[in-house]
Design brief:
- This protein is 78% helix and 0% strand.
- It folds into two domains: 200 residues, no CATH class; 221 residues, no CATH class.
- It is an all-alpha fold.
- Helix 5 runs antiparallel to helix 7, helix 8 runs antiparallel to helix 9 and helix 17 runs parallel beside helix 20.
- It is built from 21 helices and no strands.
């Protein structure tokens, strides 16, 4: 038996163990005109630049740093294929399943939604590897020229490959968000525009990093970007999987768990960097991290608190057996009341971390003892309620206030009519927030003829109120905290009922 026949048999045996979606998508992609045209254009463009580049370079090929210029040109050609063409193909592959009505056939097979998503992603990765193999002879050619640095080149190629995977997963997620033909057309335009923007942004960053390697801050920045990219890759994978999961399945837990990990990774990375560099985190950094975390949990909370509280029997059968494990798992399970509980716990942890970093992580030696500080907080002492602590408290209060209103509206709306769904509640919640921000400006423009005048009307505007509190207005904070506590108390019964529904569930485990 010849080597070719052995290789063919081995590959046939291996394909039986591979993801069926990967095999199907790879076969279709390699036979498509788009892949063949892109592959040939990549080879022709690389050959063209190598031949005419040598003619234009002249003596610089031997005495200059022509290796850098040639590599940059070849990299841009490769990046067009891997950062634009491949993610666009991943977007169309999932969209075509819905257009051709073949996704229903996939959903009734033994394949799970996660296997479908990973099959399409790995198919995009195979195409990336083929494009890399096509450009590799030209990269090898640049290694013979002056100015070629293997470490820099390897770094750029690896980062570009990882960026292509993240963009492909992002494209798959965007493709799963819409189903109608009009929505898909608009999403296609938005996805292509985003890929072009990502192409230029990533190229600018990667090529600038090509010349900036070496410093410790650079590698800390790269490590942070890798953490961010990995976390959002996992988040987009969970969102795509949830969109392909049956409505009776658990679409929520994976997304909430990733969002929690993202939040803690952000703070742990900053604290680790400050500890490593033996630095005290400045107050502006802590306030900036608090603002990023507030934006993160506001977006997550808008989706979490407006979900239906009902749990299917499929989800109930998958609950942990012990009550303690169920109690711990409760905030991550589907349901608006459990989403509000998750938001309350995470914002409480955010407040504790921010206040602790602002108060106890100091090297001046004047920091109060923890028990003394807690006593001062409870008694509203001025020594504990500094300007930074008041600012953090106001920033953590507003998401609970507005999202608590959204959770109460979701329960009330569904009790009034079954036609009201989560989309209606989210739009209405956004309108309430917009009215709270814009309303005071309109009132002041109508009655006071000026919009930049600070008044008590701004209490519903978190941006103006946080600035006012940071400027020294302590009475305004008391109103904000009191209003937030009132909204939380309004939802306490629903929070307890949502936890009891999980802990005391008696559905038989299978």
């Amino acid at each position: 038996m010849s080597t070719v026949e052995k290789t063919a048999r081995w590959m046939e045996w291996a394909s039986d163990w591979l993801n069926p979606i990967l095999v199907k998508e790879t076969r279709q992609a390699l036979k498509s005109r788009q892949f063949v045209a892109t592959f040939l254009l990549l080879l022709v463009a690389s050959w063209f630049f190598s031949v005419f580049g040598l003619l234009l370079a002249g003596d610089a090929v031997e005495y200059g740093s022509a290796g850098q210029q040639f590599f940059m040109v070849f990299y841009v050609v490769l990046a067009i294929a891997t950062l634009i063409i491949v993610p666009s193909g991943a977007f169309r592959s999932l969209q075509a399943e819905r257009d051709q009505n073949t996704f229903e056939l996939l959903s009734i097979t033994a394949l799970s939604p996660r296997q479908i998503v990973w099959g399409k992603l790995l198919s995009a990765f195979v195409q990336v590897l083929l494009y890399y193999s096509a450009i590799s002879p030209f990269i090898a050619f640049t290694s013979l020229l002056q100015g070629f640095d293997l470490a820099h080149v390897a770094f750029v190629l690896v980062i570009s490959m990882l960026a292509s995977l993240v963009l492909s997963m992002t494209a798959l997620m965007l493709s799963s968000l819409v189903r109608g033909s009009q929505g898909q057309a608009l999403m296609s335009l938005a996805a292509f525009a985003g890929l072009v923007f990502g192409f230029f942004s990533l190229n600018a960053f990667i090529l600038s990093a090509y010349f900036g390697m070496g410093s410790g801050e650079f590698w800390w920045g790269i490590a942070s970007l890798l953490l961010v990219g990995t976390s959002y890759f996992a988040l987009f994978e969970q969102i795509t999987t949830s969109r392909l999961t049956f409505e009776s399945g658990n679409r929520t837990t994976g997304i909430r768990l990733v969002c929690v990990i993202q939040f803690w990774l952000l703070w742990l990375t900053v604290f680790l960097y400050c500890w490593w560099e033996s630095q005290t985190p400045p107050s502006n950094l802590i306030l900036g991290l608090t603002g990023i975390s507030i934006a993160h949990w506001s977006i997550v909370g808008l989706y979490a608190v407006t979900e239906r509280n009902t749990l299917s029997r499929r989800i109930r059968r998958e609950l942990p057996r012990t009550k303690l494990a169920r109690l711990v798992w409760t905030p991550l399970l589907p349901g608006g009341s459990r989403g509000l509980l998750l938001l309350l716990l995470q914002l409480g942890a955010l407040w504790l971390m921010a206040v602790g970093a602002l108060t106890f992580w100091r090297t001046s030696g004047t920091t109060p003892a923890p028990l003394e500080f807690v006593t001062d907080l409870v008694t509203f002492s001025r020594s504990a309620w500094t300007r930074d602590v008041r600012t953090v408290t106001a920033m953590c209060s507003y998401p609970l206030f507005y999202l608590g209103i959204a959770a109460a509206l979701a329960r009330w709306g569904r009790s009034v009519s079954k036609e009201i769904n989560h989309v209606h509640i989210r739009v209405f919640a956004l309108l309430i927030f917009a009215a709270g921000v814009i309303g005071p400006y309109l009132v002041k423009m109508i009655f006071l003829r000026r919009w930049d005048y600070a008044s008590k009307l701004d209490i519903t505007n978190p941006f103006e109120t946080v600035s006012t509190i940071r400027g020294g207005a302590s009475g305004t904070l008391a109103i904000v905290v009191a209003a937030t506590l009132a909204i939380v108390l309004l939802n306490v019964q629903a929070l307890v009922r949502g936890a009891e529904e999980i802990v005391c569930d008696d559905t038989k485990q299978r």
